[in-house]
User: Which sequence fits this backbone?
């Protein structure tokens, strides 16, 4: 939305006190003087010269350095935004040439984080509320009741902004914000109404201009050529066209991966011999999460409970048994069974993977592009941040290695070895006053040699996050979660008129 770009330009211009785009100037201060409000911001005289007192919403030189340094060092996942760091001029304290989508990302995710510890709490609070409003309004799905709540929220937010920012800040575009929830109630999610598809289409039309003396004729000719090529390409089944080209983050599986743990490897592929401890850790994790072994896990737990009679056993104790005892118990039980009673996949699981594993630099899975930490050291993107939900909580880490276990050509399993933040320690994870999750990689878990240490997860369990440094506390990083661009959550029943096809539920995980 152009409103978001205008809001971003107004906020950044006012905070950095830019001559172009900033709303805090001598005219704005004299407006306050004429209205008789905020006397502490009225122009003052010093040594015969007029000067403007420092406002709470204007950053001092040191604060500008901190804010712009965070933006300058910012790395985001592939396809999430452009290289915003190229828009930063540290010498002149400027942030310019932002694209519309860059402003969209800044307003919704980054501004409240980059400004933490730089501006006063009341300014940060109102910017955070504004950011939350746009983020919820631009979600892929909207609840009508939530939209009504957004209408109330934006009214209060604008009132708070009027207490802080000068009157010149409130252009017609800022006032239009109050109408956005009503528009969403009438028109639905904004993805079907905003300007990004139109701008991409206009960019294609502009690219057709060859003779600048006759731009209309060039565009018309280019449009006719595009229509002809589109018509012809629909009849080419063996040629890759724009209609048959796979998406950028397409994870088509070409091997037989157990429990959909595979994806599409990218980058360099190497092999190495995995040490016995790491191999045992990876295989144990597979045994504990394979659906094919569910009956065996249940039988194991029943045998362990029988030892304690009728004593109530906690879930924590059972999980500990599974981690420490189940693999050895399973290895002893399978040889006692008849071959025809045991699934071939179960035999392969018990046998364990080959010690020679494949190592990938990157992987496309679940609509995400994952890189190992080493690969992105000299890149402008950050694709190694991972999150996994386990034991009723989220764990955050960095992908260190992507390995593919080979169960002797029966099937393959792709796993991620990660450094995990110790989320149980307040020294490595906390929530700030605005609800943002902050982590610190100085204290990790799963770094010892115990059997309970699990640095591995299945590739299919991974969700992507990225980290933004905190300007207030050194070493702390803010966690920002992302969703795949091309996946939507459509948990609705789709009616089919043709009687030949039964009705079915379409569940696409976002």
Assistant:
């Amino acid at each position: 939305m152009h409103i978001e770009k205008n809001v971003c330009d107004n906020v950044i211009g006012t905070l950095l006190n830019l001559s172009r785009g900033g709303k805090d100037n001598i005219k704005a201060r004299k407006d306050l003087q004429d209205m008789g409000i905020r006397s502490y911001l009225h122009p003052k005289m010093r040594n015969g010269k007029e000067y403007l007192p420092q406002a709470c919403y204007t950053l001092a030189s040191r604060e500008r350095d901190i804010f712009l340094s965070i933006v300058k060092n910012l790395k985001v996942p592939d396809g999430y935004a452009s290289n915003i760091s190229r828009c930063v001029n540290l010498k002149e304290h400027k942030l310019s040439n932002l694209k519309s989508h860059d402003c969209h990302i800044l307003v919704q995710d980054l501004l409240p984080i980059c400004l933490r510890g730089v501006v006063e709490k009341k300014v940060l609070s109102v910017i955070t509320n504004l950011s939350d409003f746009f983020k919820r309004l631009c979600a892929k799905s909207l609840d009508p009741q939530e939209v009504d709540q957004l209408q109330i929220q934006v009214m209060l937010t604008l009132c708070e902004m009027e207490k802080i920012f000068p009157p010149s800040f409130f252009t017609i575009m800022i006032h239009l914000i109050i109408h956005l929830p009503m528009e969403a109630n009438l028109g639905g999610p904004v993805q079907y109404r905003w300007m990004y598809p139109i701008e991409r289409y206009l960019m294609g039309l502009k690219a057709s201009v060859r003779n600048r003396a006759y731009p209309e004729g060039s565009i018309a000719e280019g449009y006719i050529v595009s229509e002809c090529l589109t018509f012809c390409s629909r009849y080419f089944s063996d040629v890759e066209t724009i209609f048959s080209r796979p998406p950028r983050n397409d994870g088509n599986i070409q091997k037989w991966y157990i429990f959909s743990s595979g994806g599409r490897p990218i980058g360099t592929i190497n092999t190495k011999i995995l040490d016995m401890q790491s191999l045992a850790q990876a295989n144990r994790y597979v045994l504990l999460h394979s659906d094919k072994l569910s009956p065996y896990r249940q039988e194991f737990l029943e045998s362990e409970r029988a030892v304690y009679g009728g004593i109530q056993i906690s879930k924590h104790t059972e999980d500990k048994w599974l981690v420490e005892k189940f693999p050895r118990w399973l290895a002893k039980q399978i040889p006692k069974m008849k071959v025809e009673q045991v699934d071939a996949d179960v035999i392969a699981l018990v046998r364990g993977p080959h010690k020679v594993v494949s190592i990938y630099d990157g992987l496309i899975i679940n609509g995400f592009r994952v890189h190992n930490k080493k690969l992105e050291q000299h890149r402008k993107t950050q694709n190694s941040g991972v999150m996994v939900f386990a034991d009723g909580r989220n764990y955050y880490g960095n992908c260190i290695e992507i390995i593919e276990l080979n169960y002797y050509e029966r099937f393959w399993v792709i796993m991620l070895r990660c450094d995990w933040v110790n989320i149980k320690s307040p020294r490595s994870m906390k929530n700030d006053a605005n609800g943002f999750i902050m982590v610190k990689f100085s204290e990790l878990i799963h770094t010892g040699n115990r059997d309970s240490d699990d640095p591995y997860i299945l590739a299919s369990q991974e969700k992507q996050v990225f980290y933004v440094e905190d300007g207030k506390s050194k070493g702390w990083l803010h966690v920002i979660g992302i969703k795949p661009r091309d996946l939507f959550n459509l948990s609705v029943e789709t009616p089919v008129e043709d009687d030949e096809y039964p009705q079915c539920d379409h569940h696409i995980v976002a």
